[in-house]
């Protein structure tokens, strides 16, 4: 089966569940390989009270034995500690005293459209699943994908380059992505990090929230992942869809993205060079196209960036309509983050890891790690010979 994942669970339900399909047998996988990224997702300046309640850790429910994958689906559970405070309201079984339905849809959320689509008069049925809490399960899946890719030297990092009005150059942020964990806002520039924190403080004081932009960089990808043959195989399109699916993401770019519209062709294309310093292999003079040409990786780092709108759950009430009364009203307030961009960057890493792992296994796929390694090594050996044989 193709490498993929599905998730289940509600924000205040018993837990978040991830089921990862297509994981080859023989991959070394421990809980800490996944927990590392779950912890990173919970961090970040501006996070709200929920992160003080939860301590996200996975429990393997299937697919792993004695530290190695079996080739069967990998099932993981992250328990929601907050469920103890919501057990009656979120009980799977009927309760004697059901809570009053929530009928004040919040602007910017899935509330109103979801209530109309699923024919419910209680938006609790919508907001629990549409909540960004679901991304815990995505990060768990990304942890499996990341561990697979790391076996072949592929490393994925991210950096935040804008929060509100505080920003740094995106290209410089991408270059410094490997050290972004050192910053509370995942920004590799210390001065800009402090400016971002000041922006978040101001938004929190105003009972508001901020969005921003982040960049994900995948280094070590071999050329030829993805394909130009069919639109569904184009890797840049698949990456864009995966990152856009993250809550509150409103724009995705590859490489310099929309800036390609500013320049002439000769100023955009990444010229191909002979790298005499490394045995005469091939290299690029730049990476403006983000490591992707014709829907395929070209051997340069894959660079994907995204713009995140401010989260919709804020402490400031916004205008809405009470659907039960049919009259204008003010929306309800819930605890929330002042800024979730640093967490979104980690989720972005996970989604990029999943898509690249899919493409990697499509190219080198096998049922077990032994066969995959043999296929990968044979391919890389053939690629290395291309220039050498041409020169001779």
UniProtKB/TrEMBL annotation:
Its EC number is 4.2.3.5. This is Chorismate synthase. FMN binds at residues 129-131, 247-248, 294, 309-313, 335. Reduced FMN (FMNH(2)). This reaction introduces a second double bond into the aromatic ring system. NCBIfam families: aroC, PRK05382.1. Belongs to the chorismate synthase family. One of its GO terms (biological process) is amino acid biosynthetic process. One of its GO terms (molecular function) is FMN binding. GO terms for cellular component: cytosol. Pfam families: Chorismate_synt. Pathway: Metabolic intermediate biosynthesis; chorismate biosynthesis; chorismate from D-erythrose 4-phosphate and phosphoenolpyruvate: step 7/7. It catalyses: 5-O-(1-carboxyvinyl)-3-phosphoshikimate = chorismate + phosphate. PANTHER family: CHORISMATE SYNTHASE. Homotetramer. NADP(+) binds at residues 41, 47. SUPFAM superfamilies: Chorismate synthase, AroC (SSF103263). It comes from the Bacteria. The keyword Lyase applies. Its cofactor is FMNH2. Keywords: Amino-acid biosynthesis, Aromatic amino acid biosynthesis, FAD, Flavoprotein, FMN, Lyase, NADP.
């Amino acid at each position: 089966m193709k490498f993929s994942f599905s998730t289940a669970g509600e924000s205040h339900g018993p837990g978040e569940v991830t089921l990862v399909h297509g994981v080859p047998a023989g991959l070394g996988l421990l809980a800490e390989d996944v927990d590392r990224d779950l912890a990173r997702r919970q961090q970040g300046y501006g996070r709200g009270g929920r992160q003080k309640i939860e301590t996200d850790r996975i429990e393997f429910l299937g697919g792993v034995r004695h530290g190695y994958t079996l080739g069967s689906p990998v099932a993981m559970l992250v328990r929601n500690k907050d469920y103890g405070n919501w057990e009656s309201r979120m009980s799977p079984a009927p309760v004697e005293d059901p809570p009053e339905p929530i009928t004040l849809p919040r602007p910017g959320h899935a509330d109103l459209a979801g209530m109309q689509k699923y024919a419910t008069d209680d938006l609790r049925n919508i907001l629990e699943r549409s909540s960004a809490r679901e991304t815990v399960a995505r990060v768990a899946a990304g942890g499996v994908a990341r561990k697979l890719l790391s076996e072949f030297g592929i490393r994925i990092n991210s950096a935040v380059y804008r929060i509100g009005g505080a920003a740094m150059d995106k290209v410089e942020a991408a270059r410094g992505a490997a050290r972004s964990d050192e910053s509370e806002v995942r920004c590799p520039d210390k001065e800009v990090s402090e400016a971002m924190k000041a922006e978040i403080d101001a938004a929190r004081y105003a009972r508001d929230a901020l969005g921003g932009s982040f960049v994900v960089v995948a280094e070590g990808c071999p050329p030829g992942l993805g394909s130009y043959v069919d639109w569904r195989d184009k890797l840049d399109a698949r990456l864009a869809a995966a990152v856009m699916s993250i809550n509150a993401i409103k724009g995705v770019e590859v490489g310099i993205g929309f800036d390609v519209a500013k320049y002439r062709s000769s100023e955009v294309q990444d010229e191909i060079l002979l790298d005499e310093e490394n045995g005469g292999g091939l290299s690029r003079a730049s990476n403006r196209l983000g490591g992707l040409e014709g829907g395929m990786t070209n051997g340069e780092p894959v660079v994907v960036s995204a713009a995140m709108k401010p989260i919709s759950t804020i402490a400031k009430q916004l205008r809405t309509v009470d659907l039960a009364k049919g009259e204008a009203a003010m929306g309800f307030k819930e605890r929330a983050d002042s800024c979730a961009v640093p967490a979104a960057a980690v989720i972005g890493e996970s989604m990029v890891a999943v898509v690249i792992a899919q493409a990697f296994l499509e190219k080198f796929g096998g049922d077990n790690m032994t066969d995959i390694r043999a296929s990968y090594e044979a391919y890389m050996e053939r690629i290395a010979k291309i220039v050498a044989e041409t020169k001779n």
